[in-house]
């Protein structure tokens, strides 16, 4: 492999953080389900692994991991089907960015059910759901840092300057938890990064 280094997310750790959020939301335990686009890709498998590791010491019981074929339009239907089969479900993990918002949409069609939803990433839909209390929280990546750190390293390599690359050629960028408590701060930081993006677009033009 010619890749000098991988800079990105530790998806197992991301899954563990999702598990911790659910344990806080459901201290009494209960049945939970995982939803993801596909399970034959590394990030889905690793997030699933992290969730299962995190909740292993709890009273949460996983009824299964359900996929939608990587089709966001199908995700709501998959959740709706699971809710009809498991009316006592207490928690939903959305392992990909669109899964939790689609779970929220499915639950709106089942207003009598009280199900805690934990998501991933920081889409507009996710942030809105967290603000409204329809998602317990979400664990987000930092794609801005992926690009920033990658370009810094590539520049040093091009200039033949010393670069600190780990033996396993892997650098993980921390993920972070979004809840109602820190939502305003997170949105402010995202807005600041978007301003930087607009600035560079203007420069490029």
How does this model look, in words?
- The structure is a single chain.
- It is globular and about 60 Å long.
- Strand 5 (116-120), helix 5 and strand 6 (137-140) form a beta-alpha-beta unit.
- The protein starts with 5 loop residues before the first strand and ends with a helix.
- The protein is α/β, with parallel strands linked by helices.
- It contains seven helices and eight strands.
Give the SSE layout.
Blueprint: E1 6-8, H1 11-25, E2 30-36, H2 42-55, E3 60-67, H3 72-85, E4 91-94, H4 99-108, E5 116-120, H5 124-131, E6 137-140, H6 143-158, E7 170-172, E8 176-178, H7 183-204
Parallel strand pairs: 1-7, 2-3, 2-4, 4-5, 5-6
Antiparallel strand pairs: 6-8
Helix pairs in contact: 1-2, 3-4
Order of helical and strand elements: EHEHEHEHEHEHEEH
Strand content: 15-25%
Mean pLDDT: 90
Q: What composes the largest sheet?
A: 6 strands, mixed
Structural class: alpha/beta
Instruction: Write down the overall geometry.
Output: globular
Number of helices: 7
Secondary structure tally: strands: 8
What's the alpha carbon Rg, rounded to whole Å?
19 Å
Q: Which sequence of strands runs across the widest sheet?
A: 3-2-4-5-6-8
Q: Name the helicity range.
A: 40-55%
């Amino acid at each position: 492999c010619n890749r000098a280094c991988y800079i990105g997310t530790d998806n197992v750790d991301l899954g563990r953080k999702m598990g911790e959020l659910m344990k806080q939301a459901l201290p009494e335990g209960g049945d939970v389900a995982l939803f993801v686009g596909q399970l034959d890709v590394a990030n889905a498998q690793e997030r699933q692994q992290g969730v299962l590791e995190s909740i292993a010491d709890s009273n949460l019981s996983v009824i299964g991991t359900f996929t939608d074929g990587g089709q966001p339009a199908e995700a709501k239907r998959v959740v709706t089907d699971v809710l009809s089969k498991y009316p006592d479900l207490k928690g939903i993990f959305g392992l990909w960015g669109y899964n939790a918002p689609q779970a929220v949409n499915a639950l709106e069609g089942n207003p009598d059910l009280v199900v805690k939803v934990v998501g991933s990433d920081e889409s507009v839909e996710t942030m809105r759901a967290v603000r409204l209390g329809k998602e317990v929280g979400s664990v987000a990546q930092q794609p801005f840092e992926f690009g920033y750190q990658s370009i810094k390293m590539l520049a040093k390599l091009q200039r033949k300057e010393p670069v600190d690359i780990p033996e396993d050629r892997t650098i993980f960028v921390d993920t972070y938890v979004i809840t109602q408590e820190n939502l305003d701060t997170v949105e402010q930081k995202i807005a600041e990064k978007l301003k930087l993006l607009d600035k560079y677009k203007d420069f490029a033009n």
